[in-house]
Design a protein that fits this description.
Helix content: 55-70%
Structural class: mainly alpha
Radius of gyration: 13 Å
Largest sheet: none
Length: about 110
């Protein structure tokens, strides 16, 4: 990422580590949406406000403190999905075909 915004609790290594570790557990659909948020950070359409929203959602995803603990079967990722969905709605103008394609390519790499 060329322009970094510091968000408490978010780190690049923490994001990739958790996403790779739990990708199969949280499923392709959620992983794809998370990757769309991540790659939207590179978009020229994404303002500092949008990037702050994205980083906040990604920080929540990698945070060990959740409203519903990730270890709770079935429900554990419900809160994460809600945060990701809200962030996607707030930054939808940043997610173009190029962002979607990058997310799909990474998803294929992990799930193929």
């Amino acid at each position: 990422m060329s322009e970094q915004i510091h968000i408490e609790g978010y780190s690049e290594s923490g994001f990739w580590g958790k996403l790779k570790k739990y990708a199969k557990t949280i499923g392709e659909e959620l992983v794809e949406k998370v990757l769309q948020l991540y790659y939207a950070l590179e978009s020229d359409k994404c303002s500092a406000k949008h990037k702050t929203i994205i980083y906040g959602a990604l920080a929540y995803l990698v945070s060990p403190i959740d409203a519903i603990p990730d270890l709770t079967p079935v429900l554990g990722y419900t809160d994460d999905m809600g945060v990701v969905a809200a962030a996607l709605a707030a930054v939808s103008m940043c997610i173009d075909e190029e962002v979607k394609e990058k997310a799909k390519n990474k998803l294929k790499e992990w799930f193929s």
